Amino acid sequence: MRRVVLFEHMSLDGYLAGPGADMSWVRVDDEWWDYAAPIIDAAGTAIFGRITYQLMQAHWPSVADDPSAGPHDIHHSEWTKTATKLVFSKTLPAAPWDASGDATLIREDVATVIRQLRQEAGEDLVVLGSASLARTLIRDGLVDDYHISVNPVIVGGGTPLFPDMTSLRPLSLESSRIFKSGVVALHYTAAAPS
Question: Which of 15, 76, 135, 167 has the most beta carbons within 10 angstroms of its beta carbon?
């Protein structure tokens, strides 16, 4: 069975992005990349909502060819080229990526598709950003691993990760790590139903 891995940056007050979609407060450095790369590399499939897909597609395909890019950026750019990319959107007409191929555009029900993918053999599925998609998967109990990088900032508003949660969702802490930047990486797994 494949696992669904949620990989997010979050402010201390629970936001993925601040007002106006501001993410300038996210702290990413070499120490963080050394932690993040093996988690992302273990996934063979990247799952995006429309907005995150458009941001990623506009940035990552060209990074590997940028002479000023650092090794971690190049590594992640190469991963995005080889990973299967699934884009959940009812409004995008297509999902081009780069010369290596397109992302797969999926218009069907998110929960149905993810349930099917989880039953297949293969590498993990990683959700990067994609706030509304992440919230749908959380709500439907389809997230197996939560990797949350809590940044040392209070943004006071924006895009929350856990709005309108109406039921208790027990999690098990698997690991935590504090970086020199002040970021705290937390890894939780969904607790087995009692």
Answer: 15
User: CA-CA distance, 151 to 167, in Å (whole number)?
Assistant: 26
3-state DSSP assignment of residue 104? strand
pTM recorded for the entire structure: 0.91
Helices 50-63, 71-82: axis angle to 10 degrees equals 120
Span 83-137, pLDDT tens digits:
999 999 999 999 998 877 789 999 989 999 999 999 999 999 999 999 999 999 9
Count CB atoms within 10 A of the CB of residue 68: 6
> Which CATH architecture fits 4-190?
3-Layer(aba) Sandwich (3.40)
Question: Which strands, in side-by-side order, build the sheet including 43-49?
Answer: 104-106, 84-88, 43-49, 124-128, 4-11, 145-151, 184-190, 171-178
Cα(115)–Cα(119) distance, integer angstroms? 7
The residues spanned by each domain of the chain are: 4-190
Distances (CA, A) of 30 to 70, 72, 79, 80, 134: 9, 7, 17, 19, 26
